[in-house]
Amino acid sequence: MTRAWLGSALLFVALAGCSSLKLPGDETADRGAPSGPPPFEVTVVAPAPLKALLERHLDVIRLGDLARGEVIDEAERARLAAAAPAQARALLETEGYFDATVVVAREGRQLTLTVQPGARSTVDRVTVEAQGPLQQAADDGDATARALVEQLQVDWSLPPGAPFRNPAWGDAKAQSLNQLRAAGYAAATWSGTAAEVDADTRHVRIFVVADSGPLFRAGPLDIQGLKYHD
Description:
The chain is α/β, with parallel strands linked by helices. The protein contains six helices and seven strands. It has helices at residues 48-57, 59-66, 74-93, 133-139, 143-155, 166-182; strands at residues 3-6, 41-45, 101-107, 110-116, 122-131, 189-198, 203-211. It has a four-stranded mixed beta sheet. It has a three-stranded mixed beta sheet with strand order 2-4-3, with helices on one face. The N and C termini lie far apart (74 Å). 22% of the residues are buried.
């Protein structure tokens, strides 16, 4: 059985951007623009949504566009080709495909990535807990606190049966913290978040614990100006 533990920064893929700014009258702005054919041509064979994801973020494609017209030696070509399958699998994992097969075929400047994503993993079980003053108040019988803890569990937006995707995982955690903060626990944070991925069964078990921090209440009113106004 293959398992992987994913924390709150699940499979975060750092993707550098590229931008340029051309000012009026800047005659040199176009001189450094890439021109000519790319150093290699890449074809991605995959289902449409995943194909778009890979074409947008794979280094072997992005760096090829940035280096258009430049000479890339054979060692660098080989490195990019060898790194492509692992990077592709990491990108696919952000969409819940933890058992994908990626095959690279290279012929001269032609590079073909063939992707078999397999079945997408789904959420199997979710445990949402609170600790700190909120949970203490609930344990002491505070009906409002108890209702808030229960509502956090009910409103968790990545329920059992849902596809496990990195964006949805991040959104679910952000939504729960916002819910706590809107209820007066303005310093609420996560004391622990984890997802246990079973690649064999394609199931994910989620466990999150929110540290509520203190309940913030409105302080005393400070009214000024009544000397001249009612």
